[in-house]
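Board notes (copied after class):
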Amino acid sequence: MDKKWDLKKPVSLEFKKKFPEIPGVILQLLNNRGLDTQEKIDQFLQVDYGQDMLDPFLFPDMEKAVKRIYQAVANKEKITIHGDYDADGVTSTVLLADIMQMLGADFDVYIPHREKEGYGLNEKTVKCLAKNKTNLIITVDCAISNVKEVALAKEKGIDIILTDHHSEPLKLPDAFAIINPKVKKCKYPFQSLAGVGVAFKLAQAIIARDENNVFPEGYEKWLLDLVAIGTVADMMPMLGENRVLVKFGLIVLNKTKRKGLKMLAEHAGLLSNETSSLITSDNIGFILGPRINAAGRMDHANTAYELLIADKLKEIDKLVKKIEKTNQQRQRLTEKIMKVISSKIKVEEKEYLILADGKDWPLGVIGLAAGRIKDKYNRPVLVIAKMGSKVVGSSRSIADFNMIEAFQKLENNFEVYGGHAMAAGFTLKKGIKVDDFRKEISQIAEKSLKGKDIRPKLEIEAEFDLADLNWELYDQIIQFEPFGMANPKPLFLVKNLKVENVRTVGKDDSHLKLFLKQETMIKGFDSIGFRMGDRAKEIKYGDNVDVVCEINLNEFNGTRKLELRLVDFKKVK
């Protein structure tokens, strides 16, 4: 699909005079992020854990929740941590399990099976936990929509401390305590924490009220490797408190004490003796996060949980190999479903939403397929799997269409739903026909998107000459790490590059590799376009192209070099 190139407005002469010592490209990146004073620049680039971390007791129910946990520990009540099956949920669960272990609590962990039990609490689980004498349930990354299930727990004499970060439903559960920055009554200053971020705030509060010196000084910081993984993997905005958590989380991750996490990283080519590169937010997003997620997508998230708490190397090795195999299965199955969907749909300009459905598609990969289709066509996408009598779906959306708001308008169609504006899941009620649902949600999408230019838009931060690309510029750019949502890795426009070499690489020739240089340059740069192999036919040796790209570090066999990661290109006529 043709992409719209949106180059940011160049910085003003006045702004350049204000900071004459800062190179033009870096000045443009600062300006694009609204960092127009020395104070703002320093706060963004020089993150301070002590000053920038918010008080966990700004959550209205935090004090109440912490007192209840200490009461449960003192009275030897049974506590169950109820997690979720994605990377955010698993890391949240491990984090609170660490805290409970330190407190000497009588606790266990419950993570539901994605296909058999679905998202969040369910009535069968509540009954099972009641039968097993659980007195207190702490949910992480889930349950904000589980009104009936929380009511059942209360009826069974179980208190629930509900920690979550998903959007507030029309009716809140009557939990003992709710810790969720998205709830309207909550005045916590930062609303965009991941589930693991909320769990960390609870952990901070527990540590702050430690009267018996259970937690050694600095203990909370060693939890930040988990927070970094969950926050990046769940695609939370990399601003505010998330930036603090991930910035320091990456430091901890690179020297993690978790043997399973370390072996998983090493097995994936990170933390290797052969490379001096540190794990980055990119590595979490594209390498570690998908592997941890794969366990819950293809089998059971317990495998990922067990890996992150494991201590014996033989057990860890077995778990890492299992996760690697599962991740490969996930990749193959996603490709297979993508091909089926692509052969079925034909997107026209007047279509504002895509809904694809199939029989017995695994629930763990339909969200990935929805994301890939959304990226290809830049439309809100819903992928539905019919599994016996159940109709379950996953959605991914675009900036101009809030999926959760659309779902709220169609609430009577759902047995359950939840998620974010950009990504949500649901189960249709029995008797609701997919075609009828498609018609209703398509009408909402058309009303919202009609008249808008919904071509995929590339937000280009700055234009520069390839001759100016050097290690000094790269080092200045990576000061903007951690990258992620709302602080994306910068896209640059480089014009009039000569194509010196064209080839496809990777499995099925799926990636495009070009060697590019400007006329005045003696040497050029390699560039790689992932999943762009089908565009090799558009260009040949000697052509001139304008490219939109990221600047990447390629490190292989002890050699470090800079390369371009292609995002789009246009042939210069």
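Comment from the instructor: The CA atoms of residues 25 and 462 lie 6 Å apart. The radius of gyration is 24 Å.
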